[in-house]
Prior knowledge:
Number of strands: 11
Structural class: mainly beta
Mean pLDDT: 96
Largest sheet: 7 strands, mixed
Helix content: under 10%
Low-confidence stretches: none
Oligomer: single chain
Strand content: over 45%
Amino acid sequence: EVQLVESGGDLVQSGGSLKLSCVGSGYAFSRCGMSWYRQAPGKEREWVSDQSKTGSTNYAASVMGRFTISRDYDKNILYLQMNNLKTEDTAMYYCAACSPKYWGQGTQVTVSA
């Protein structure tokens, strides 16, 4: 069974930091690009960042300079380091992989003022 399991979401004050993790199993995710998406209450899911199988990275303008995506290809783990968090970063964060074909269940990030 292919699975992506996120963790690391929490309640944090504005200006704080969090690091999300996404552990993949059941598939060699090193063959694919992996991404982070988020969905805030009442809003559509939006792309946040991705990292290709070769390591190139991309970021949404809203998180550029604050968030850093990284991967441990050997362990099938995707990370998202989030710094200088803002209240507008509050959302459910999802890990996705392979175009994306696979999705995790999400981890909640809440940023208080």
